[in-house]
Amino acid sequence: MHAKTVEGLVGARMYMNLTDTPMRIFKEASHRGDTAAMERSMGYAGKFTDKAGDYKSEADEGMKKDAEEAKEKAEEEREKAAQKREEERIRLEKRIEEAGYPNADKAAGMKMDTVEVSEEGRALQMESTDALVAASDGETAGPAKEPVIYTKTGETGRQEPGAAMDVSC
């Protein structure tokens, strides 16, 4: 917190507390009907209120400076964070280049994982690839499955060719 802000807040509070005494005297004088004492006490209360206003404006100036300093500090923090991210990116690119990954220029901004496939997995992949190639050549990869229809009771039935279907919810 800026020194002007603290000084302004403390001063304003002090002078507002000091107005309590002349206001109390004003009330007592008004009950007695003593207009001279009333005028004097209102003069003191006015002076104290003016001083409190001066300190309030000083506190406002201090708060503006606080806001400016906070804004500058936040901007510096953003710049530091951006610079740190840039350094991290450069360091990551260097590590990728040193490791000798293919397509390192594409992988610079990506996270890379490696996958190891067992012999069994390779065999399964080859079988499925062979089945897809055979199916695309017109051969069937296995027994053809006929469409199945389920009834309301959950039993299976066969669909008759050309039969109309009605689906309701």
Report on the architecture of this protein.
The protein is mostly helical. The chain is built from 5 helices and 2 strands; from the N terminus they run αααααββ. It has helices at residues 3-18, 20-32, 35-99, 104-107, 119-136, and strands at 148-150, 156-158. A hairpin with a 5-residue loop joins strand 1 (148-150) and strand 2 (156-158). Helix 2 (20-32) runs antiparallel to helix 3 (35-99).
Physical arrangement of strands within the biggest beta sheet: 1-2
Secondary-structure class: mainly alpha
N-end to C-end Cα span: 68 Å
How big a fraction of the residues is strand?
under 5%
Query: How would you characterize the largest beta sheet?
Result: 2 strands, antiparallel
Rg, alpha carbons: 43 Å
How many beta-strand elements?
Answer: 2
> Which stretches are low in confidence, meaning pLDDT under 50 for 5 or more residues running?
none
Helices and strands, in order, run as HHHHHEE
Q: Give the integer mean of the pLDDT values.
A: 82
Percent of residues in helices = 55-70%
Count of helical regions? 5
- Tertiary shape: elongated
